[in-house]
Design a protein that fits this description.
heterodimer, A: 536 residues, mainly alpha, 20 helices, globular, B: 258 residues, alpha+beta, elongated, disordered N terminus
């Protein structure tokens, strides 16, 4: 192991090219295998973002940032493209954090994946930066709050502060600000693409991180290709398409549902807020987009006002980043057992608690100063609770007093979702009776369909859990029947949404909702097909 | 049970044909029927195709530039200085060597604002003339000068040849050594005469600059743009489509370049 580490990685890659893409074990395509594909999902969302982003450039004008963004909403399907671009970005940030936490807990930063881990941390920084510039391009009141905070931080950099501020955010005029934001947005997105290539190549080079039990919980965790592994085509390709379709479904469904809801809080609204110069701007609380709320709250701390924004950000976001960057070089134990790495697991959980806590705090009390003692309590209490708890659970698992593997949380989550959909169905049926509007009928059909599907899922979960899960195949006719139903529904939904004129925001949201359902059907179909033909 | 028995999936043709011949009949329920599989594939193409059609349709319809007019009729916009005051006659310099433009009728569509004079910088009265459009052979009546000396005129500042905008295209005062008293576009050499309705002097342009009809308010000493006269603005199918409305209600702000 020590010997391997001293070899030159670039030399190994250049002089000893590895097969690409490698075959992967079958369990990656089975139940729970989705955790091996969080990176692939990020890539899928990223490509969606690139394409929709470039379409948005057909109409974006830095000289009238806000009006040209608002104007997008009145173009045919402009609302759909703008809102899905926004929510795709949100999804990407969420998935990046998920990918990070997952890999931190399973220990995939360990030898031989240190460089891969470092490139991943850089990608996290780049993703948040791209999202920052992208959001700020709208020119609405949230974006101007975000650029103000950005200027404050940049200006606080010693010696070169004002230069840095003008390099990043322009010389003060609107045109120079939005031209710069546009430029940085694309430049950093391009950098992500390049770093993606490196990250993926390393992932192929180092092989996927196999299940820890397959390598006896010891580093280096390298997947040794077995003859039974199935080839990429068609097995993994179809699986990737399945994931892609489900991911697209999320990107389409979430903003479409939010667009149809009457009043969504500014933080999660899929639309640009009022212009920063509008008199209504004062009615929107002064905060940046949600993924930067934690930075914003850290600036409210008493110590931050003493340090100034730059040093405060360096302290509060720099320290966790430095921890992530040096993690592979300080945690060099050769075990992959989660229960033996309680420190890392606790820091992952505590970090997540800080992130969510600070974000919520920033949303609920924007700009309210925080005395040092309260800030200190906020940081110390979760640590005091989580760290001993993680050690305690680890010990119980080691002594086999607690077993993992109960999926009760799925039932609770789906139960909550079914309840939500029941309320939505009730509202839309009520509305279609009271108003008799054509679009309410469509909305009722859609929501009722989702309600039926989730109720079925709930039934299957509850009763399927009691029966022990030997995976059952449908009969041959069953596959044909379900396949026909999926195809019929997809064509039916396409026909329904095709007649909706893309004139209003609501109509476009219905179109997006229908598209989301078609993508769900597509993903479900491929799952069915894989089960039928490959028995997967 | 190895690959040749229960795991005999259809990508393995030799194995599949053995099964069709009746070998290992006991596994037949697990092995998909060829026709059924083809039918399922067809259904899959339908589902994915529905998603693709829906996605492509929205993208294609989105990227077609909107053709409907953003304004139902020409807006009347009063000219304002960047400092927020209306433009008065004293703010306009006769034969100004600097370029003064304002957006009209839509955003990002510069129009010249000129106060024309003779070679000793005295105001010259501009009268309406018939201006010929070489491209079509038709002609139109140009807009006369306005203001106390009838010397203030306006036109689109987008060259009718290939759409160059200021500073490439600009007015050369009568005292200038090159192109005296003409509007000349440095891109390809088109020259227009602002003293006679922005008519074509030299090609390659085949069309005069569209005139901006200005209205002078004597009591307040202010200027407003009300309508475009003559050919359509370069690059447009209609003066009022293919762009965005000016958002400052009733106002358009003049900008000085150079």
């Amino acid at each position: 192991m020590i010997k391997l580490e001293k070899e030159n990685l670039i030399e190994k890659i250049m002089n000893d090219p590895q097969p690409m893409p490698r075959k992967v074990p079958d369990y990656m395509r089975k139940k729970g295998g989705i955790w091996f594909w969080t990176g692939a999902m990020i890539m899928i969302v990223f490509f969606y973002e690139v394409i929709t982003g470039l379409i948005l450039f057909f109409y974006y004008q830095p000289s009238n940032a806000y009006t040209s963004t608002e104007n997008l909403l009145s173009l045919p399907y402009g609302t759909l493209i703008l809102t899905t671009h926004l929510y795709g970005a949100y999804l990407m940030i969420g998935l990046v954090y998920l990918h990070l936490i997952r890999n931190m807990i399973v220990g995939s930063y360990k030898h031989p994946r240190q460089i891969q881990w470092l490139s991943g941390v850089l990608l996290l920084i780049l993703t948040v930066a791209v999202a920052y510039f992208g959001y700020s391009m709208t020119g609405d009141v949230l974006s101007s709050d975000a650029t103000d905070v950005g200027r404050g931080i940049a200006n606080g950099v010693p010696l070169i502060g004002s230069y840095l501020s003008s390099i990043v955010l322009g010389t003060g005029t609107e045109l120079s600000l939005f031209s710069r934001l546009e430029g940085w947005h694309i430049l950093l997105a391009g950098t992500i693409l390049l770093l993606f290539a490196v990250h993926f190549y390393l992932a192929e080079y180092n092989t996927i991180m196999p299940k820890a039990e397959d390598v006896n919980f010891k580093v280096p965790a390298i997947d040794k290709e077995k003859p039974s592994y199935k080839p990429w085509y068609p097995y993994n390709l179809l699986y990737m398409i399945q994931i892609a379709l489900f991911t697209f479904a999320l990107i389409f469904l979430i903003p479409s549902i939010l667009s149809l809801l009457p009043s969504v809080p500014a933080l999660f609204s899929p639309f640009p807020q009022v212009a920063a110069t509008s008199p209504l701007a004062s009615s929107v609380p002064p905060y940046p987009p949600w993924f930067l709320l934690f930075v914003y709250k850290e600036l409210d701390f008493q110590i931050s006002s003493v340090l100034g924004p730059f040093w405060a950000v360096t302290l509060f976001t720099g320290l966790p980043l430095i921890y992530l960057l040096i993690l592979p070089y300080i945690e060099k134990s050769d075990t992959l057992k989660v229960t033996r790495r309680s420190i890392v697991v606790s820091t992952a959980i505590v970090g997540l608690v800080y992130l969510i806590g600070l974000s919520y705090w920033g949303a609920a009390y924007p700009g309210v100063p925080v005395p040092n003692i309260i800030a200190l309590t906020f940081f110390i209490v979760p640590m005091l609770i989580v760290v001993p708890l993680v050690y305690y659970i680890a010990k119980r698992i080691e002594n086999e007093k607690t077993s993992y593997g109960t999926s009760v949380w799925k039932i609770y989550t789906l139960l909550a979702f079914t309840g939500f959909m029941a309320i939505m169905t009730g509202i839309s049926i009520y509305s279609s009776i009271v108003y008799g509007n054509y679009y309410y009928y469509i909305a009722s059909i859609f929501t009722a369909m989702i309600l039926a599907i989730s109720a079925l899922g709930l039934y299957a979960l509850i009763y399927g859990l009691k029966v022990n899960t030997e995976r059952k195949r449908l009969s041959n006719k069953g596959y044909i029947l379900f396949g026909s139903i999926y195809a019929f529904l997809a064509i039916a939904i396409l026909s329904i949404i095709s007649v909706i004129p893309p004139t209003t925001i609501e109509n476009q949201a219905l179109y997006g909702f229908g598209m989301g359902l078609i993508f769900v059907l597509g993903g479900a179909f491929i799952k069915l097909y894989r089960s039928y033909v490959f028995n997967e | 049970m190895g690959r040749s028995y229960g795991n005999c999936w259809l990508d393995d043709w030799r194995c599949g044909s053995r099964l069709l011949k009746g070998i290992n009949v006991s596994t037949e329920e697990k092995v998909p029927d060829e026709n059924r599989r083809k039918f399922l594939k067809l259904l899959g193409v339908l589902v994915i195709g529905a998603g693709t059609v829906g996605a492509l349709r929205s993208v294609v319809q989105n990227i077609i530039p909107p053709v409907e007019n953003v304004e139902s009729s020409f807006p009347t916009l009063t000219l304002y200085l960047p400092n927020g005051n209306p433009v008065h006659t004293s703010d306009l310099i006769v034969n100004n060597p600097q370029i003064v433009v304002f957006d009209y009728p839509l955003q990002n569509e510069p129009s010249f604002l000129l106060r024309l004079g003779d070679s000793s910088n005295n105001d010259v009265e501009i009268k309406s003339t018939q201006v010929k459009i070489p491209a079509t052979g038709k002609s139109f009546a140009s807009v006369p000068g306005v203001g106390p000396y009838n010397s203030v005129v306006g036109s689109s500042a987008i060259c009718q040849h290939l759409g160059c905008v200021p500073p490439e295209i600009h007015f050369y005062p009568p005292s200038s050594s090159s192109f005296p008293g003409k509007i000349h576009c440095a891109c390809h050499g088109s020259t227009y005469d602002p003293y006679s309705g922005f008519s074509v002097v030299t090609g390659p342009t085949q069309s005069p600059l569209p005139n901006v009809n200005l209205v002078y308010d004597k009591t307040n000493d202010t200027y407003s743009a009300t309508v475009m006269v003559g050919p359509t603005i370069y690059g447009h199918s209609d003066d009022l489509s293919g762009g965005q409305q000016i958002t400052t209600a009733g106002k358009t702000v003049i900008t000085t370049i150079q």
